[in-house]
Amino acid sequence: MYQVCRVKGFQKQLIEDGVISSDRSRIIPLQGGVSSDIYLIEDGDKRFVVKRALEKLKVEADWYADTSRNKAESDFIDFVETLRPGVVPKISAKGDGYFAMEFLGDGFRNWKADLLAGNIDVRSAEQAGKVLADIHRQSAGRPDLAEQFEHMDSFWQLRLEPYLLVVAEKHSDLRFSIEKVAFGLKDERIALIHGDFSPKNIVISSDRWVLLDCEVACYGDPAFDVAFLINHLLLKALYHKKYYQELSVLVDEFWCSYKSNGFDLDLKVSRLLPMLLLGRVDGKSPVEYLVEESEKEFVRGFSTETILHPSKDLETLVRFWFKQLSEFQPQSEE
């Protein structure tokens, strides 16, 4: 009942704002992330998507965030569109707490879904590295963007606190190291970052690669974006152990593509990556596809060792992950 009333109220707002023509327009809730309501709108012969940020996220834990991040997302899309037209969805309208954008439906595949299905596409990883490097490079040293995207409060609420500080509370032996990195990220102002650069936020068609869900965008440390993407690729390799060699190639392609065009982030990424791995097991938003306790213990063991005894560079860290993974034997729970 509450969901129906909420949709009806939002429909009225969209009519008043001139985004849809009448109450005969269909508003269809879409599945997706935990931090926003996302609707497919069918208004006559027009189909588009409307996204509205939520104050309380759709997770079990009490997790709240500033809804002004909706503007941060639309501003990020506007900026990236000037750099690489077509790499982000086209925005058609903006309103109080929401924006409307093109519907990327027929012909598009979600990169995360592809990976979970065992479809390994090296070109997607290479493109991810190029696009991310371009965003970082073109936005660095821009006081105007630093002021426009001063959204560190949202980044803290949605990334640093739930992924790092919550984990630090649970692992007292790692607390000092994790908190040092978290507060360092909070203080950095280097370039525009996406903040949720992961396969679930990338869709692909035969002729287009599109980046979505940039509501955590802020002016911060580019190392976070790089580590965040590699983190997801490593976890997919644990889930799909039989494809771990192919996924190791994906990591290499992404990192080589980024390094050729972006910043030298080797040391920073190698320090942050084990913490993010642990964050997707023991943080506020654990990945849904690692269900065996033995898989979670594998991540905990690897992360603990490499946080307490850091690798000299990212290549060494990633190589160690895949070596450990090659020897890992998952144990199904009774």
Q: What is the average of the pLDDT values?
A: 90
Structural class: alpha+beta
Distance between the termini: 39 Å
What multimeric state do the chains show? single chain
Total beta-strand segments:
10
Poorly predicted tracts of residues: none
Number of domains: 2
As a percent range, the share of helical residues equals: 40-55%
CATH class placement of the largest domain: Alpha Beta
* Largest sheet, strands/sense/barrel: 5 strands, antiparallel
Order of helices and strands: HEEEHEEEHHHHHEEEEHHHHH
Proportion of residues in β-strands = 5-15%
Main sheet strand line-up: 1-2-3-5-4
CATH homology superfamily of the largest domain = Aminoglycoside phosphotransferase (APH), C-terminal lobe
> DSSP helix count?
12
Radius of gyration: 20 Å
Per the principal axes of the C-alpha atoms, what is the gross shape? Answer: globular
Question: In the CATH classification, which architecture of the largest domain applies?
Answer: Alpha-Beta Complex
| CATH topological fold name of the largest domain | Aminoglycoside 3'-phosphotransferase, Chain: A, domain 2
